[in-house]
Amino acid sequence: MPDRRILILDDEPDALSTFQGYFAGFQHGIGYVVETATKGAEAAAALRRGRPDLIVLDVHMKGLDGLALLKQIRAIDKRIPVIVVAGRENGHHVSEALATGVFAYAPKPCDFVQLEHLVGLAFASRASS
Questions:
Q1: pLDDT digits (tens, 9 = 90+) for 74-91
Q2: Domain that holds residue 49
Q3: CA-CA distance, 67 to 45, in Å (whole number)?
Q4: Which residues, at least 6 apart from 99, have a Cβ–Cβ distance to it below 8 Å?
Q5: pTM
């Protein structure tokens, strides 16, 4: 099975590094090519290079409206599964994100066992549709 392309959007470089490390260790029998972006322009460039198989998006980023970015992603391709990550204090953002039809929400800081499970479910549901 070919590698899956994951796009992670987060404004915290340490969080991006942690996400990359965890995706390298996920055990789904496939590899992951992880691309990251900290700014809207970087995210747009990554999307122009090709559609990711999954997007992990922090909806609360400094200098970037994660919800607006999510709506842009949805306008490009509604079929890309999106897992939203956000701190528990951002309940309003999470509610709005869920209303756009994201695949799942994972609270920050992430429980990577839960995230791995959500990633597996996202790919399984995409394969069956």
A1: 888 889 999 999 876 667
A2: 4-128
A3: 18
A4: none
A5: 0.89
